[in-house]
Records
---
Amino acid sequence: MKKGILILLALAVVCSSAFAQGMLIGVAMPTQSLQRWNQDGANMKAQLEAKGYRVDLQYANNDINTQIQQLENMITKGCKVLVIASIDGSVLSDVLKKAQAGGIKVIAYDRLIMNTPNVDYYATFDNFKVGVIQGKYIESALGLDKGKGPFNIELFAGSPDDNNATFFFNGAMSILRPYLDSKKLVIPTGQKDFTVIAIQSWESAKAQARMDNLIAAKYAGSTKLDAVLSPNDSLAIGIVASLKNVGYGTARKPYPILTGQDCDKANVKAMIAGQQSMSIFKDTRTLAAKVVEMVEAIMQGKTVPVNDTKTYNNGVKVVPSFLCDPVYADKANYKALLVDSGYYTEADLK
Ligand code: BGC
């Protein structure tokens, strides 16, 4: 009798994983213009295919309508799960209603999908912690924690349609705000509100243009720029370009402390060259592996792994999340972190 039950159970397990094999999973990525999303997409595809799934991987060129169209197609083609790194987190309600009606599960990838009940899970890096690491870097690089100051700083934030941007900013400000209050940190341009400092679509060119304006307004004379808070690498690229154009990078006019995020190859090179001070390493292999685990659990009717059920309220509900750990990177540790781990080769960074 017992043996019979065991055989049945074993059969059920074999059947459910065989059932998952060959199923179609949709992976919607925002753009190929940034290195990280290419890696995210490639990692997701490779890891899902290794488990026997078929993958419909799409990039939307940062265009909202293109992404919605791609999701519609994925639903029509019979995808069982949609993994979505949204462009604008708040415009997918209609298409996700269709997904829900078709019994399709939705995982928000890296960026939370807002204002809809029809997002089942969220997998990301701890976005608040990313900002905290950036803020702490500025704090200790300037010696604020040792009572030094006052120093001049300018602030940048990410795209206002990306929920992550607020988390990055709030994390960094949780460290920097006390120093602004005590005037150990001063913002000569006075620009500190999220809406004023946010860069639409995370565009390097827009960050460069804003930095040009800040320099023209306050730093044309002898005012020293000590630090710039940049939430990610694409903005840091634009900020460095702007600074370089007006002669930063010499002994008399050194680059300010400048933060970043993603460890894009161009930015690791900029760290090695002393133009950018630090970045955040978010190993896209880890995130992809976690999302693949989530997909497997969904397909097999098992408990989906999450480690946070409080933080990410999308306006309708708290979305059960798995937060991976972001890691600090700079010139001193990039080799161990990025090269020894096989993420990049030495040649990638030449
Ligand atoms: C991601 C960052 C990325 C930014 C721009 C954010 O949502 O978390 O890693 O730098 O988008 O693509």
---
Amino acid sequence: MADSYQPSLETSLDRDCTTLSRHVLQQLQSFGPEAQDLSTLMNRIALAGKLIARRLSRSGLVEDALGFTGRTNVQGEEVKKMDLYANDVFISVFKQSGLVCRLASEEMEKPYYIPENCPIGRYTLLYDPIDGSSNVDINLNVGSIFAIRRQTGDDLDQSAADLLQVGRENQLAAGYILYGPTTVMVYSIGTGVHAFTLDPSLGEFILAAENIRLPDHGPNYSVNEGNFWQWDESLRDYIRYVHRHEGYSLRYSGALVGDFHRILMQGGVFLYPGTLKKPNGKLRLLYESAPLAFLVEQAGGKATTGTEAILDVVPGELHQRTPLVIGSREDVDLVESFIQERIREQEVLQASQK
Ligand code: AHG
Ligand code: MN
Ligand code: MN
């Protein structure tokens, strides 16, 4: 008699692999319209990530992938070819989604509208298409950062005024894609932080870590110490403290996504404070700091400007920069304590001079 067929659990996709779309729906415990929307949006972001990862993996082999375009963006920074490629990938991917009416990115002065989506597409995608683009030409890790906000109002004057609201209430989802030795997508829709690794043979992001929590304290501190001379004395005092105590390691790659990923997985703190030349630091609130602040809070950590939670900052404009201190709760508290002490000292000094 022939043996009856038994499916092998060892090789079953269902048992071993949770894909991104299934995970999003599981997180929402719903098949309602918003859950379907978020699942579709995440899948579209994943598709953009796959396209960008593919281009990056061949960047030394194909023409016109590396180097500068010769243009500068709205922030006066030189634009790389990969910045524009990745910016366009997100646009074309979302043109087909039907869900996103508007995209706002580091590389575009004004939001980009997809008018055919606007009657039903009530979401805005904010993104940094290539974060850490100085790493592109030297084959080191880069990333993409994203946040999804619900579009409120009709925005008929195209001022994007409804985007100028705090991240705490208006970000429905946020995350990043890290293009390293493997491509990793980390996302949150407000139910924890989850990481997926791209399996290039399947073309699927597969669950790698669920409900990531950072330790309350970690050994890493990540900051461009070349700016020491430009910092407020409070930040210099913090760095002097770190230099004089055992147990700290400096780790800085020049790409926020990579440096943040290390902090998320191992603990510690990333800092980009204000400098003499850039009093609000370098990082942009809406598509760099606020999405990562959303993730870090979901993972039990903290993100602050030094005096205010990043998620409570009201943006004054689309491309607003903000100082950023982000990571493990105790490490961020320590940085804040140096900043607060300095503020108190200055208040006392001012009072004594009156
Ligand atoms: P982007 O490439 O999107 O402009 O971002 C670069 C950012 C960030 O990724 C990184 O942490 C920081 O700039 C590095 O700046 P410094 O070279 O001033 O350290
Ligand atoms: Mn960036
Ligand atoms: Mn960028």
